[in-house]
Amino acid sequence: VHPNVSQGCQGGCATCSDYNGCLSCKPRLFFVLERIGMKQIGVCLSSCPSGYYGTRYPDINKCAKCKADCDTCFTRNFCTKCKSGFYLYSGKCLEKCPDGLEANNHTMECTSIVHCEASEWSPWSPCTKKGKTCGFKRGNEVRVREIVQHPSARGNPCPATSESRKCIVQRKRCQKEGKGKKNREEKRKKSNKEESKETRQESKGRAARRQNREQRENNNKTQPKKRKAPNKEQHLAPVDTAH
Fold first, then answer.
1. Is 55 left (phi over 0), alpha (psi -120 to 50) or beta?
2. What is the pLDDT of residues 20-45, one digit of tens each?
3. Model-level pTM?
4. Do the domain assignments include residue 233?
5. Phi, psi (5° rounding) for residue 186?
6. What is the CATH number of the domain that holds 130?
7. At a CB cut-off of 8 Å and minimum separation 6, what does 35 contact?
8. Phi, psi (5° rounding) for residue 74?
9. Is the backbone of residue 135 left (phi > 0), alpha (psi -120 to 50) or beta?
10. With 50 as the cut, is the pLDDT of residue 243 above it?
């Protein structure tokens, strides 16, 4: 240490020298040595730079270097990011991942192997041939399934997502599109005609019933009321049963 020690330092230094830079730091700052050519200069930082981790002591806070294969670390024995060519696993930087794990070149970590997963098969589709469901006897039907989990680099590949098989149907003729449309139109008109006929008949029936009811009411009003016949039993003389 150069004997020329100053108290009026800049950049967070508590004490410094013209030759070595910072010798001690103000509270809560970290002291770290930076190499400039063959010379090391002390500096005071609020956090440690990449490749260093911070340790706090009662008298001074220091930045210490991580292991050679660590880019950043929490402590010397626990890396948080590895340098190029190494894969992070449980705080260590490895050139090759352990068995059962695979190297993830995107995150540069050792991760679990993920195998492909597929959903259940769908029901078989209708039997078709060239996109039609009529006019043939032998055709094909298919079923499909979806991939619900894609595999990682070393995972088991995905199976087929569709299957096809031969099928047999009852041969039937295909209706022509124009004829089928004409038949549907005729059926619709016939149905509407029958509904209109039924509606008219119901209206006539209701009108006839209403007319008959009104006529009966009028007849009851015009006819005189009949007198009640006397009870014949009241005019008969009592029969003497004594002998």
1. beta
2. 888 889 988 999 988 888 888 899 99
3. 0.47
4. no
5. -65, -40
6. 2.20.100
7. 41
8. -90, -45
9. left
10. no
Residue 227 confidence class, pLDDT cut points 50, 70, 90: low
Task: Establish if 108 belongs to a structural domain.
Answer: yes
Question: What confidence tens digit (pLDDT) does each residue in 142-180 have?
Answer: 999 999 999 988 899 999 999 999 998 876 677 765 555
Q: 5: pLDDT confidence band, cut at 50, 70 and 90?
A: low
Domain that holds residue 2: 1-65
Backbone phi, psi, residue 25, to 5°? -115, 160
**How many domains does the structure of the chain reveal?**
3
Q: What totals of helices (H) and strands (E) does the chain contain, helices first?
A: 1, 17
E strand spans, the chain: 5-6, 13-17, 21-25, 30-36, 39-45, 52-56, 61-65, 70-75, 78-82, 87-89, 92-94, 101-104, 109-112, 117-118, 138-144, 147-149, 162-168
For residue 205, give both structure tokens: 């029936």
